[in-house]
Design a protein that fits this description.
The chain is α/β, with parallel strands linked by helices. The protein has seven helices and nine strands; from the N terminus they run E-E-E-E-H-H-E-H-E-H-E-E-H-E-H-H.
């Protein structure tokens, strides 16, 4: 389990193999908390009977689908299903983590924030200032999708409503932190959050000091080429001083997307080590959160 001492941890890690590929998940639909958007999402279920704890997975700026298919997609909806951007076209990272959580007895729900808004193709690197991202932004739009996912999961009879967690990557990691900021002192929302290499600048976060009653873990690489690990550490230090429970795992030599299971990222030994350690630790983090 991650040490809850209010300090920033620097970890030297050993590599382990990544999880095996998962079977295609179910496709479900639910309303965003924005009151106007129907979200398409992908539901990974454990084989054994429930009820189960659950986790909501928030994709990054590239969207939930593989780069091999997402260029062919725009709108994804119940009325306009896509031949490419669907449960069979999810990226290897999302499939890997979906399998990871079901292997540990959790239901995992991956909402697509972009497809229902005509942007299933996602966005490339260094596109934070792209005006086309305004209506799918991590400050005021995507947190409402996460809250809609929480409400939907709580309506399911096989879900333990008091044990629903949140995990996000990059833009989805920033969204994760914003969800927890919105949740604030409320203890009946997401029980804890995992933010992988989030953007932590003032354009990405609602506040540079997070106030959350629920614990948060940030997992970041020291050699991240897209977001500033130092800025995230500064946000964490201010937030800890304000009373929030935040752990930071800073992985030496790891880059952005260090948990991408593809050969490009995993050929870097630091990324392989970071992925292996993250997969050992995050289950302990969520299991350690109890009433």
């Amino acid at each position: 389990m991650i040490d809850r001492a209010p300090q920033l941890a620097l970890l030297m890690l050993a590599a382990l193999p990544a999880s095996a590929a998962a079977a295609a998940p179910d496709t479900v639909f639910f309303p965003s908390a924005d009151g106007k958007t129907e979200i398409v999402a992908y539901l990974f279920r454990p084989e054994r009977p429930g009820p189960h704890p659950a986790i909501v997975l928030l994709h990054g700026r590239g969207g939930p689908y593989s780069i091999n298919v997402n260029r062919e997609c725009t709108l994804v909806s119940r009325a306009s299903p896509s031949a490419a951007c669907n449960a069979n076209g999810l990226s290897r990272r999302h499939m890997m983590w979906g399998q990871y959580w079901t292997d540990h007895g959790y239901v995992a729900l991956l909402p697509d924030s972009f497809g229902p808004r005509g942007k299933a193709h996602g966005f490339g690197r260094f596109t934070h200032d792209d005006p086309d991202r305004t209506d799918v932004n991590e400050l005021t739009v995507r947190p409402l999708d996460a809250e809609g996912a929480l409400n939907w999961l709580r309506s399911q009879s096989n879900i333990i409503g008091k044990r629903i967690f949140l995990q996000g990557w990059s833009n989805g990691g920033s969204t994760t932190l914003n969800v927890m900021q919105r949740q604030g002192a409320v203890k009946s929302g997401f029980r804890a959050a995992l933010a992988f290499y989030p953007g932590c600048g003032p354009d990405a976060l609602l506040s540079q000091t997070l106030r959350s009653a629920a614990p948060i873990a940030m997992l970041i690489g020291s050699d991240d080429e897209e977001v500033s690990p130092q800025r995230c550490q500064d946000v964490a230090q201010r937030s800890i001083a304000a009373g929030s429970k935040i752990d930071v795992l800073l992985y030496p030599g790891a880059t952005h997307d260090f948990d991408d299971p593809g050969r490009g990222r995993q050929s870097n030994p630091a990324n392989a080590a970071a992925l292996a350690d993250a997969q050992k630790r995050v289950i302990g983090f969520v299991e350690g959160v109890r009433d």
